[in-house]
Amino acid sequence: MNPLDFECAGETLQALPQGALYWPARRLLAVADLHLEKGSSYAVAARKLLPRHDTRQTLAALAALIDALQPATVLCLGDSFHDRAAVERLSEDDRAEIERLTAATHFVWIAGNHDPAPPPVGWGEVAEEIDEAPLVFRHEAQFGPVSGEVSGHYHPVAALTVRGRGFRRRCFLTDGQRLILPAFGAYAGGLNALDPAIAQLFPDDYDALLVGRDAVRRLSWRQLRPDASAFG
To answer: Which of 24, 29, 50, 114 could cross-link with 79 by S-S, CB 3.0 to 4.6 Å?
Structure first.
């Protein structure tokens, strides 16, 4: 799995190549912005021809991590469902898989801007944020100085040039006190890590932990480049 160990608020955390966060001391697995049923939402409402398999792909990736790590808690940092009607559009198989996963371990669903309504009863705990001192988990980062904040919402991606070729990769962003997770959802889209909406949250130095196929690579924000990005 080749995770990258790093520190936030004095705690040793692991950035996983799958785009998830693991906190070994608490056996806590965190994922952000699953956006389940985004494909079906676009197909119905926006009439865009997206394949409607994103939910199954996202759940399969999450299930593989749960099977491998056996976490005590799975924490979903908001926007787990793409809209209020997403749960109703779930296929029977996908609903059954969510029920299997939530029965196997303790799930906590943090409310996001896309999914303010709670998931069905029996699928786990629902919260606005979770305080696991010294870390606090919420959907969207709060402006101003913080210590130990872990959030999602922005779907950060890093753009860089290697040997004359441009690349974009999902990434974690951290300055050692604040951490923003990449989107875990298959169709989640991304916002450039240098975008002012993100950069204003890190007034000093910050690093991007780039998600690769088999490993995570740490780079300074100075090594990244601006790039046109689609936020979804």
So the answer is: 114
